[in-house]
């Protein structure tokens, strides 16, 4: 169903907010503000006075003084305007404290982290040990190196391109872009486009309409919708049924997941049999033609998967790749069900006191999970708050 003029009237009254881990929130905050303050640690370095020794020195240092795993992003050699310089080894805690007292650099005692505003000048060789003192074991042939100095280098790899630009100005490092929960560039400029906001709002309105119908019947005003992101097809519209049929587990998300499972020949709750036509508004009801179309779409997806080299030909598992729109933040049970059903994205309207996708927990951000999905809140928040949810579970 195309977005109506009424949808247009509501798009400017709500904003879409990604629900991120604390680390991702901090990264987004720094990315948006441009105030990127890298964590630094002290390293000994030395100028290269004989370029022919670079290969030998690099191999020896890599074997006897390898960079820690958290510092693998650093390159051993950097090119300055007039010379080449090589990283030698990290400064010890005692050495860091000595430099901190001598130069006033702010280095924490436990981690040896220096604030970026206190980056030590590379040409400052005061109180810096000699090469023989730095390598007291004497097992390294140090010919080809000049007088050592201390330099502050980033102690972790860059998380995004803006950080990499800052990192590169301190010491050369490699950068491997990792998959992001959200697009930082989009999020820093206000999020999704107006067209995408209309699409998201239209699906949330379906969930609100279903919740209002259920509320009018004496049920809870909580609605949910499952959408196939690829085709845009609405696969299920359901509401909270936990106050009916003596089934306390039938929250809105549980209901729509079960409805999708029934379309795939499964389903766990017999009491939901035949609920599809009863639950959805008439304009969204599933007709015989719709059922045939759904079947055709499944067959088409199956054929597409069978033609792919890396697919098994099986139908999608439950809600794999689907979006879920729910008026209220899911509880822990529903959040785990969404995780297990392999949804790609969850949009919810307003927060819940015991919500597990942002308020009480951020379940989707747990590093130990074997499936990741996106979560956004604030979709038509005022309209969702106006619904009567009864006693909170």
Mind explaining what this structure looks like?
This protein is an alpha+beta fold and 393 residues long. The chain folds into two domains: 5-21 and 187-385, Cytidine Deaminase, domain 2; 40-180, no CATH class. 34% of the residues lie in helices and 14% in strands. It contains 13 helices and ten strands. Strands 1-10-9-8-6-7 form a six-stranded mixed β-sheet, with helices on both faces. Strands 3-4-2-5 form a four-stranded antiparallel β-sheet, with helices on one face. Helix 12 links the parallel strand 8 and strand 9. The longest helix has 23 residues, at 194-216. 31% of the residues are buried. Mean pLDDT is 79; it is low at 1-5, 105-123, 280-287 and 304-313.
């Amino acid at each position: 169903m195309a977005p109506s003029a009424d949808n247009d009237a509501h798009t400017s009254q709500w904003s879409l907010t990604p629900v991120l881990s604390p680390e991702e929130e901090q990264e987004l905050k720094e990315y948006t503000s441009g105030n990127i303050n890298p964590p630094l640690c002290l390293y000994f370095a030395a100028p290269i006075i004989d370029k022919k020794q670079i290969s030998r020195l690099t191999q020896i240092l890599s074997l006897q003084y390898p960079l820690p795993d958290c510092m693998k992003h650093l390159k051993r050699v950097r090119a300055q305007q007039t010379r080449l310089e090589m990283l030698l080894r990290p400064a010890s805690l005692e050495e860091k404290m000595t430099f901190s007292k001598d130069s006033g650099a702010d280095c924490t005692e436990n981690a040896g982290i220096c604030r970026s505003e206190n980056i030590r000048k590379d040409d400052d060789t005061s109180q810096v040990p000699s090469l023989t003192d730095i390598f007291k074991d004497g097992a390294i042939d140090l010919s080809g190196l000049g007088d050592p100095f201390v330099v502050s280098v980033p102690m972790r790899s860059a998380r995004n391109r803006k950080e990499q630009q800052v990192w590169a100005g301190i010491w050369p490092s490699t950068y491997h872009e990792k998959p992001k929960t959200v697009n930082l560039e989009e999020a820093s400029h206000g999020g999704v486009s107006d067209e995408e906001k209309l699409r998201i709002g239209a699906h949330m309105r379906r969930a609100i309409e279903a919740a209002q119908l259920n509320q009018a019947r004496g049920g809870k005003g909580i609605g949910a919708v499952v959408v196939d992101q690829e085709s845009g097809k609405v696969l299920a519209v359901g509401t909270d049924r936990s106050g009916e049929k003596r089934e306390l587990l039938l929250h809105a998300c549980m209901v729509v997941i079960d409805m999708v499972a029934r379309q795939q020949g499964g389903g766990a709750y017999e009491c939901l049999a035949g609920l599809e036509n009863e639950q959805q508004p008439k304009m969204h009801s599933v007709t015989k033609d719709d059922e045939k179309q759904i079947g055709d779409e499944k067959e088409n997806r199956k054929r597409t998967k069978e033609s792919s080299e890396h697919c098994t030909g099986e139908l999608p598992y439950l809600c794999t790749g689907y979006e879920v729109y729910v008026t209220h933040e899911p509880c822990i049970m529903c959040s785990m069900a969404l995780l297990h059903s392999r949804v790609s994205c969850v949009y919810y309207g307003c927060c819940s006191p015991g919500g597990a996708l942002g308020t009480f927990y951020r379940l989707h951000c747990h590093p130990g999970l074997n499936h990741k999905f996106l979560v956004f809140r604030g979709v038509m928040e005022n309209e969702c708050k106006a619904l009567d949810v009864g006693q909170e579970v």
